[in-house]
Amino acid sequence: MNLIKSTTTYSFFVIISRVLGYIRDVLIAIYLGSGPIADAFFVAFRIPNTFRRLFSEGTFNSAFVPSYMSEQQKGKDNSKKFANNVFNFLVLGLLFLVFLVEIFMPVFVFLIAPGFSDSGEKLELTINLTRITFPFLIFVSLSSFFGAILNSYNKFAAASAAPIILNVFLILTLLFANYLNDTLVFYLSYAVTAAGILQLIFLVFFTRKYYFPKFSFKIKLDKKLKFFFKKLLPSIFSSGVTQINILVGTIIASFQSGAVSYLYYAERVYQINLALAGIAVGTVSLPALSKSIKSKDYFKTFDIQNKSIQLSLLLSIPASLGLILASEEIVNGLFGYGSFTSADVEITSRALSFFGYGVVAFALIKILSNFFFARDNTKVPFYISALIVLLNVLISLSFFNQIGFLIIPIATSISTWIGVVIFLYILIRKNFINLKIELFKNILKILISSLIMSLMLVFSLEKFSSYLDYEYIYKSIYLLIIIGFVGIIYLLSCYLLGLLKIKSYKTN
């Protein structure tokens, strides 16, 4: 397997999904803006969507793939039996969870958005919308299960393409916004659940060659299943630490009017890079990494780890600098239309710039966690992730009254960087990693290329400043031109410095 080729395949569909997600969010910004209805929908959407990310974006994969591949080595019957047990347990567990939450939805929503209690109408709307969207969790979690099976066979396309369905459904709904008026948010919520059903069917179709589920109420809780679920819960928390921080941020931000929406739009931008530099690289490298560790090929293991870190930094460092330097222009060009005012742009861009300082850390956390998961070690990532969340909460609550919701992206970035340092320290101490001199040389080359790109970005922003003004209707076109231009400059610099050699990312 070639790491960069597999990542490119995965990233291709992720980019399509994110572009459609951007179109979706622009339409939401136009028709809902950043008011109470938007806040209610974003909370209702974020709750199941956070669970989706906790399960699907490499998290379930990190726990399932090493165990499934171990069973594969023992024979097809073993892997099939293991997969069936996991599937049946998931189905029953998810049905019970959704049923329970639906009953106690008012309490659940209050816990997620306690600040909404000041407005009875806003809280009631959020409860009603969340009741509609929450079953999405069942279908998207099972979709993650089938996606993990495909990933085990180094088949990444279908799993990365599946989320496109959600964005298509929401966009189609938003296109009828003028006809739906006050009922728009309800139809959007129904579209979320409907997309989850279709996404599951889509992945079952592509997985049938390797595995087809056999449902049964009889679940044998053998040692393998117990071990898997013992790993899964810490894996969900550890791999999903960024998403948990976002959820924590939503809870705290609910006490400030409009803050939930501002954080949502900022998060949508930086999550694009996280999907590529963290999730994509982590997902495609995990099967090869698990295999090399199981075969005790330590040279290959260290090689995959170094290449994973390098590829992640190659994608995240320029993105971080871009978000810091051009946050206002990016938010303006992407969302500065309709009900989304210039004041909304300014506030959201400030949040985005603070998130920008943590982009590299967000990506590295996904990569470094996998180095433990591939070794069936979930304790260390769990403890570090718990510390990250605790630090995030403490910093956010300590300074919320003085700084407002902007402390949330600041705290998220600071706490995640601390987590990265701790991860690296433990990896080195346990001899789980061997950072080669070549890696540091390539990091220096990445920094040089990123610096060149940044200079060209600053020049371009100044040159086309009048075309990026809030009032200019075609500003998004100029933004895309600038991004494309500086992106080409960056890739050219990387190519000239020898960072884009396909063969250098080969893992077998």
Gist of the model:
This protein has about 500 residues and is mainly α.
Question: Can you walk me through this structure?
Answer:
It is a single chain. The protein has 508 residues and is mainly alpha-helical. The chain has one domain (3-505). 80% of the residues lie in helices and 0% in strands. The chain has 22 helices and no strands. The longest helix is centred in the middle third of the chain and has 36 residues, at 259-294. The model has no long low-confidence stretch (mean pLDDT 83).
Index terms:
single chain; 508 residues; mainly alpha; 22 helices; 80% helix; 0% strand
| Extended strand count | 0
The overall pLDDT, averaged over residues, is: 83
Reading the helices and strands in chain order gives HHHHHHHHHHHHHHHHHHHHHH
- Give the C-alpha Rg: 22 Å
Strand content: under 5%
Low-confidence stretches: none
**Largest sheet composition:** none
Structural class: mainly alpha
Measured as a percent range, the helix fraction is over 70%
| Termini Cα gap | 6 Å
The number of distinct helices, counting runs of at least 4 residues, comes to 22
Silhouette: globular
Q: Could you say how many structural domains there are in total? A: 1
Helix and strand layout, with pairings?
Blueprint: H1 3-32, H2 36-56, H3 59-74, H4 76-103, H5 105-112, H6 120-133, H7 136-152, H8 157-161, H9 164-174, H10 177-180, H11 184-207, H12 223-239, H13 241-253, H14 259-294, H15 298-325, H16 327-335, H17 342-356, H18 359-373, H19 379-403, H20 407-429, H21 437-463, H22 475-496
Helix pairs in contact: 1-9, 1-14, 2-6, 2-7, 2-13, 2-14, 3-4, 3-7, 3-12, 3-14, 4-7, 5-6, 6-11, 7-11, 9-11, 12-19, 13-14, 13-19, 13-20, 14-15, 14-17, 14-18, 15-17, 15-18, 15-21, 16-17, 16-22, 17-20, 18-20, 19-20, 21-22
